[in-house]
Write a structure and sequence with these properties.
The model has no long low-confidence stretch (mean pLDDT about 90). This protein starts with 9 loop residues before the first strand and ends with a helix. The strands form 3 sheets. Strands 3-4-5-6-7-8-9-10 form an 8-stranded parallel β-barrel, surrounded by 7 helices. A 5-stranded mixed β-sheet has the order 11-12-13-14-15, with helices on both faces. It has a two-stranded antiparallel sheet with strand order 1-2. The protein contains 13 helices and 15 strands. The longest helix is centred in the C-terminal third of the chain and has 19 residues. The protein has 2 domains: about 240 residues, Dihydropteroate synthase-like (TIM Barrel), CATH 3.20.20; about 100 residues, Sulfite Reductase Hemoprotein, domain 1 (2-Layer Sandwich), CATH 3.30.413.10. It is elongated, with a radius of gyration of 23 Å. By secondary structure, the chain is α/β, with parallel strands linked by helices. The chain is about 45% helix and about 20% strand. The chain binds iron/sulfur cluster. The site of iron/sulfur cluster has 11 residues, from helix 12. The site of iron/sulfur cluster (SF4) has 11 residues, from helix 12.
């Protein structure tokens, strides 16, 4: 079991972050915020997929104007992503954003950052201090020569100390680079010195398999070390995939259990059925199920008994037939052509029982 780093708890709107709260899943919309309808449609899809905090970009005046409607109608807290223009941080808070993400390195002078902090304090808004290699302060670049992990961590620690000195504690920190090792090391240095909640992710991870693997490794290593209070998987994809991937990572470490965990064997020469087809069909049908269920689909009886015992529902295949299991108990023998249907029937019954128990 992963032992999580002890952090203080903060709140982004009504969502607790850090302390005893579960690792929170975040994402960011890819729509133009000024298109309120499209942005809310995407936020609602993200929410249904399990996203708990959403960030939106406010690069232009029109986006800021639209922010109020987005915040009012969003089912989850909205964080405004502010770069370069401090006035946008103030205006975002005025429009009701529950959080503001600033990158002090590109906001400018310390006094301006302090003014933003004072406003957040007065309005009960959370701040995320974002530190990344592209916007490191000049003196740190001079000291270290390039944006290495130590430089990133020092920048984050420096801003964190200032926030503490100004009496502001409702903030979290993110230190992100696109290099996995640098990312891990920088977060580790910061985590060892403070109890400030950390938002983790691998920035610009890319798309498809590469993006998912890079994110899973970068985020997974940190989570395994107990680091990370909120997570965003950054992919060049529909942001819903980011949320699904985040839950897959968290589920594989036993940190969140939302949705179906599908276990299937890799298949080998013992296989007598078209297992990939069955897995695909079941996966498709279970998309969007948010109940926590573990399903095992095994090609033969060799490993099936062990896996099926751990699973809520299982299928162990033989030649032209299979056994449906519940918690390791064989229930009935089914023909190959009915396997998917029978497995889904069993899962549906389990879901119904779960709903009744709730
Ligand atoms: S469960 Fe059976 S078919 Fe699947 S990989 Fe193992 S031995 Fe092969």
């Amino acid at each position: 079991m992963v032992e999580r780093r002890k952090t203080r708890q903060i709140r982004v709107g009504d969502v607790p972050v850090g302390g005893s709260a579960p690792v929170v899943v975040q994402s960011m919309t890819s729509t133009k915020t000024r298109d309120v309808e499209a942005t809310l449609e995407q936020i609602n899809r993200l929410h249904r997929a399990g996203c708990e905090i959403v960030r939106v970009a406010v690069p232009h005046r029109e986006d800021l104007e639209a922010l109020e409607d987005v915040v009012k109608n969003s089912p989850i807290p909205v964080v405004a992503d502010v770069h370069f223009a401090p006035s946008y941080a103030f205006l975002s808070m005025e429009k009701g954003a529950q959080g503001v993400r600033i990158n002090p390195g590109n906001i400018g002078r310390e006094e301006i950052v302090r003014e933003i902090v004072e406003e957040a304090k007065a309005k009960g808004v959370a701040i995320r201090i974002g530190v990344n290699s592209g916007s490191l302060e000049g003196d740190l670049l001079e000291k270290y020569g390039y944006p290495c992990a130590d430089a990133l961590a020092e920048s984050a620690l420096r801003w964190s100390e200032r926030f503490e000195k100004w009496g502001f504690t409702n903030y979290k920190v993110s230190i992100k680079g696109s290099d996995v090792l640098q990312n891990v090391r920088a977060n580790l240095i910061f985590a060892e010195r403070t109890d400030v909640p950390l938002h983790i992710g691998v920035t610009e991870a890319g798309m498809g398999r590469r993006g998912i693997v890079k994110s899973a490794v970068g985020i997974g290593v940190l989570l395994y070390m107990g680091i990370g209070d909120t997570v965003r998987v950054s992919l060049t994809e529909d942001p819903v995939v980011e949320v699904e991937t985040a839950y897959d990572i968290l589920r594989s470490l036993g940190l969140r259990s939302r949705g179906v965990e599908l276990i299937s064997c890799p298949t080998c020469g013992r296989i007598e059925v078209d297992l990939p087809k069955i897995v695909r069909e079941v996966e498709e049908k279970l998309e969007g199920v948010d109940q926590s269920i573990r399903v095992a689909i095994m090609g033969c009886v060799v490993n099936a008994m062990g896996e099926a015992r751990e699973a809520d529902v299982g299928l162990a295949c033989g030649r032209g037939f299979g056994w449906i299991f519940r918690k390791g108990v064989p229930l009935r023998k089914v023909r190959e052509e009915n396997m998917t249907q029978e497995l889904l029937r069993e899962i549906a019954e389990l879901k119904e029982e779960g709903t009744k128990e709730e």
